[in-house]
């Protein structure tokens, strides 16, 4: 049963504030769906052809579909955690929901998992955006010099360009100011997904002789038996990462208008978002595998399985870079808000932390400038940029982030909060047993994928010099 509390305080709405006294929320089903698509369709989509190739025609699509169904199911449980079912009080963040429903050590564990994931996403998106920007330069070079030319370029310059862009955008004060950015980013994700799918279809229609099989890459031909196992586990981490948005679900829900009830709108947004992304994921994974076969590159738009038309390949990578500018902010803004709120609470009299200076910016309007925000957020972006230069391993970083965050944030906490609210029935009931078994099964998958991704990073570090990433 969905319970809504449109008015908590018993007073009518002011024209510019909501029932909790905060600035009036203006989010709708459209903007929430856009936020979800922006968060979900990121660099994960680019690795799906490779992931399917590790598992083959049978297991690849089935495992991808299982991840989508599990993510959708868990997200619908999570939407009912935004408001307290008794008092109607809002939980503004994922952590607040865990603290109010589960409390104690679980709240601290949630914070560790959530913010560690935000850091990982920041690094992963910086790496991916730089590779895509480098791919634009390489696409033009291949067109001019021929497909046999190396056209290699260092990624560091593009990592720094992406970092500089984030330095400016990160100064936007809060998550509620990002609806326009998410809509633009979502449009970009549709653009490069369609281009990737179109190029893969053209490659298949043109008589691609890619070698495929029911079980994917072949032992003894493509990989050793041990490599096959490690690659499958990393691929599962990639698939988990492709659906990661639970850690910002509550924050997205907090942007919605209170009428209709937020949980009702958010359930629809989750359904639309996951349905749309799964459709694209299946096309990218399956058609990408058909086009490239067992030799599918880790990133199917920057691995240059496609060379022509060069301008379309370049355009797709431009779309990726623009999309990741917005996606980076969707994930990192909750971390910014957490640190700034904690500092303001701990040092309420500190002017450096709490004083803001009203000013007007061109093309933006009124803006409250904060020295603390400037220094803290800039330091974070610079640190993430430097780390991305040291560990530029696309598939392994993506797999590690997905594996690390999937179980605790997408599965464990939504299920535990659902059970704690009494919605799963009595202990040891069939629904309670089902939820517990689902949680344990996902834990095993996550642990195995973490081990495989860490192994891949260790192997990668041993074979390259830091700050020498080349596309």
The total count of strands amounts to: 2
| Count of spatially separate domains | 1
What best-fitting shape do the alpha-carbon axes yield? Answer: globular
User: Helical region count?
Assistant: 14
Query: What fraction of the residues are assigned to beta strands by DSSP?
Result: under 5%
Overall mean pLDDT: 82
Classification by helices and strands? mainly alpha
Largest sheet: 2 strands, antiparallel
Going across the major beta sheet, what is the strand order? Answer: 1-2
* H and E order: HHHHHHHHHHHEEHHH
Tell me the CATH architecture: Orthogonal Bundle
State the name of the first-level CATH class: Mainly Alpha
CATH topology label = Hydantoin permease
What does this structure look like?
- With 471 residues, this protein is mostly helical.
- It has a single domain, classed as Hydantoin permease, CATH 1.10.4160.
- It has helices at 29-40, 48-79, 94-101, 104-145, 156-169, 179-205, 225-242, 249-253, 262-292, 310-346, 351-354, 371-390, 394-420, 430-462, and strands at 357-361, 365-369.
- Strands 1-2 form a two-stranded antiparallel sheet.
- The chain is globular and about 60 Å long.
- The N and C termini lie far apart (52 Å).
- The model is unreliable at 1-14 (pLDDT under 50).
């Amino acid at each position: 049963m969905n319970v809504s509390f449109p008015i908590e305080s018993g007073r009518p709405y002011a024209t510019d504030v909501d029932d909790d006294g905060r600035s009036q929320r203006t989010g709708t089903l459209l903007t929430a769906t856009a936020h979800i698509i922006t968060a979900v369709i990121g660099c994960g989509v680019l690795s799906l052809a490779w992931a399917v190739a590790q598992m083959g025609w049978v297991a690849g699509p089935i495992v991808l579909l299982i991840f989508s169904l599990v993510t959708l199911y868990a997200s619908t449980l999570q939407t009912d955690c935004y408001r307290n079912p008794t008092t109607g009080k809002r939980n503004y963040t994922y952590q607040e929901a865990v603290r109010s429903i589960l409390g104690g050590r679980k709240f601290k564990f949630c914070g560790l998992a959530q913010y560690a994931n935000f850091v990982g996403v920041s690094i992963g998106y910086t790496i991916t955006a730089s590779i895509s920007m480098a791919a634009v330069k390489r696409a033009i070079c291949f067109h001019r010099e021929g497909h046999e030319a190396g056209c290699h370029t260092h990624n560091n310059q593009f990592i720094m360009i992406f970092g500089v862009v984030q330095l400016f955008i990160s100064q936007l004060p809060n998550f509620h100011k990002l609806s326009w950015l998410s809509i633009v980013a979502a449009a970009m994700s549709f653009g490069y997904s369609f281009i990737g799918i179109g190029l893969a279809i053209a490659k298949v229609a043109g008589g691609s002789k890619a070698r495929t099989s029911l079980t994917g890459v072949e032992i003894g031909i493509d990989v050793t038996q041990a490599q096959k196992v490690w690659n499958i586990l990393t691929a599962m981490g990639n698939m988990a990462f492709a659906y990661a948005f639970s850690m910002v679900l509550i924050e997205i829900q907090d942007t919605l208008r209170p009428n209709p009830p937020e949980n009702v709108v958010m359930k629809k947004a989750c359904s639309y978002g996951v349905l749309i992304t799964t459709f694209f994921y299946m096309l990218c994974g399956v058609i990408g595998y058909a086009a490239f076969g067992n030799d599918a590159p880790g990133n199917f738009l920057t691995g240059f399985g496609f060379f022509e038309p060069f301008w379309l390949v370049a355009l797709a990578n431009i779309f990726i870079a623009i999309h990741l500018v917005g996606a980076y902010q969707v994930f990192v803004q909750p971390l910014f808000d957490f640190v700034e709120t904690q500092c303001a609470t701990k040092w309420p009299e500190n002017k450096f932390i709490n004083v803001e200076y009203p000013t007007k910016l061109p093309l933006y309007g009124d803006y409250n400038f904060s020295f603390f925000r400037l220094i803290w957020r800039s330091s974070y972006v610079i640190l993430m940029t430097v780390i991305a230069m040291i560990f530029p391993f696309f598939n392994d970083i993506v797999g590690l982030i997905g594996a690390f965050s999937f179980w605790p944030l997408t599965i464990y906490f939504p299920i535990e909060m659902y059970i704690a609210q009494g919605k799963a029935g009595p202990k040891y009931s069939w629904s309670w047993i089902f939820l517990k078994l689902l949680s344990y099964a996902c834990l095993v998958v996550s642990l195995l994928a973490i081990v495989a991704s860490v192994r891949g990073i260790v192997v990668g570090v041993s074979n390259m010099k830091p700050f020498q990433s080349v596309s």
